Amino acid sequence: MPGIPANFGALRIWCRPGALARRRAGILMRLLAGIGGGYTLAALFTMTLSIGLPLPRSEAVLTATMASFAIYAAAIVWAFAAPGVLRAWAGLPAVAVALALALALLQGRSP
């Protein structure tokens, strides 16, 4: 194709200075948000669901643990699907706060 150099490493010359560094930093920030935020969400979800399910304790913990794998994967997908890095970082803590409030309410109820 005309206009595309044979050496794709030469594409860096076409970018503005610092654009490659900003892109890499954005990917790193999304990766950190997905891994850290996903782990936090999965842990909070497991605790909340294991207390909230009306099952025997062992079955509730097993069910909540299995479901937490889907939550963790969804959090990583959200971190990379969010329109911006700030929205990825803001979306995960918002859900974590909601789960923490639900956990606090469930712990306060009488068994």
Question: What's the topology here?
Answer:
Layout: H1 11-14, H2 19-52, H3 57-81, H4 85-108
Q: What does it look like?
A:
With 111 residues, this protein is mostly helical. It has one domain. 78% of the residues lie in helices and 0% in strands. It contains 4 helices and no strands. The radius of gyration is 21 Å and the shape is elongated. The mean pLDDT is 85. This is DUF3649 domain-containing protein. It comes from Teichococcus vastitatis.
Please give a quick description of this structure.
With 111 residues, the chain is mainly α.
Number of strands: 0
- The number of helices is 4
Low-confidence stretches: none
Distance between the termini: 70 Å
Structural category: mainly alpha
> What profile does the largest beta sheet have?
none
**What is the C-alpha radius of gyration, as a whole number of Å?**
21 Å
Quick tags:
111 residues, mainly alpha, 4 helices, 0% strand
